[in-house]
From TrEMBL:
GO molecular function per UniProt: hydrolase activity
Family recorded in the similarity comment: Belongs to the metallo-dependent hydrolases superfamily.
Top-level lineage group: Bacteria
Leader sequence residues: none
Name of the protein: L-fuconolactonase
One Pfam family here: Amidohydro_2
Species this chain originates from: Pseudomonas abietaniphila
Length: 294
């Protein structure tokens, strides 16, 4: 495989985080003492991303504080190449419907994130009063639900949720790094295949790089084997790229992350690579653009 076979066109990065620990109120994540605790803002991201022909990015809220949705909205408004953001609201918060009504008037609001973190559990929570109604309301806005922290329980919860609200678009984040004990791997793969049968479910292939005994694994064959079942499940039209910056820095620097993913995809036709890096994300989030800037 030669360098000319690797996709070199524009990229939309579907998964970055912004935060500012210098705010008076601080931030809930990354916590004080965490290696990433500090400041990660749009200017920091674009200083790294522009040389890779990343022309647009989507921010995913890393805070479960409801008012941080509006802090993040202001940051996105100030950076013309940020295409929008995935917010975070709890269906069990008394302000949920008012907050969603406020956000849905914003074109930059692309959806909500809900997964097995922040003491939440998709499988259990959808049995509680109000959850399914909240997801129906989200679906009615035309926005997307991003999941978080994939494990076997989350996938089972998403299958049940997709069946309960079939009009809801769902993006499963970070599937390449799913936490699955070896004895449950076969069952997990079967559930992922079952989830992928729902046409409104997409796979965000963020957190691809992995650390081995000798540091970052750089062999593309290692990743192609790990990703094969996801390509089989979701196909070339429902998989797309996310860097997970700056959380990705705990595994690899930004240049290494992007270059490694390019190498991993280089065995696919250029048209398929273009879908992965640019076009599929627009369908997952109903973006009105396919090539970056608003």
């Amino acid at each position: 495989m030669t360098a000319v076979d690797r996709y070199t066109g524009p990229i939309i990065d579907s998964h970055i985080h912004l935060f500012d620990a210098s705010r008076d109120e601080g931030i809930p994540w990354p916590e004080p003492g965490h290696p990433l605790h500090g400041v990660a803002l749009a200017a920091d991201y674009w200083a790294l991303a522009e040389k890779h022909r990343i022309t647009g990015a989507i921010v995913v809220e890393a805070s479960h504080w409801r008012l941080d949705n509006f802090w993040l909205l202001e940051r996105v408004r100030q950076s013309p190449h940020l295409l929008g953001f995935i917010g975070n609201l709890s269906p069990f918060d008394a302000a949920f419907h008012d907050d969603l009504s406020r956000l849905e008037r914003e074109p930059l609001f692309l959806g909500l994130r809900y997964g097995n973190l922040w003491q939440r559990d998709v499988l259990d929570d959808q049995t509680r009063p109000g959850f399914i109604e909240a997801m129906q309301r989200l679906a009615a806005t035309g926005r997307t639900l991003d999941s978080a922290n994939p494990d076997p329980r989350l996938i089972k919860g998403l299958i049940r949720l997709s069946d309960a609200v079939p009009t809801l678009r769902i993006v499963v984040d970070h599937l390449p790094s799913a936490s699955v004990p070896g004895e449950h791997w076969a069952d997990f793969q079967r559930d992922v295949l079952a989830l992928a049968e729902r046409p409104n479910v997409f796979a965000k292939l963020a957190e691809i790089p992995q650390q081995g005994n000798e540091g970052l694994v750089t062999d593309p064959a290692f990743y192609r084997d790990r990703l094969a079942y996801l390509w089989d499940a979701f196909g070339e039209d429902r998989c797309f790229f996310g860097s997970d910056w700056p959380n990705s820095n705990s595994v690899a620097d930004f240049d290494s992350t992007v270059n490694l993913v390019r190498h991993c995809m280089a065995d696919k036709p250029l048209a398929v690579q273009e879908k992965f890096f640019l076009r599929n994300v627009a369908h997952a989030y109903s973006l009105p653009v396919l090539q970056g800037a608003r």
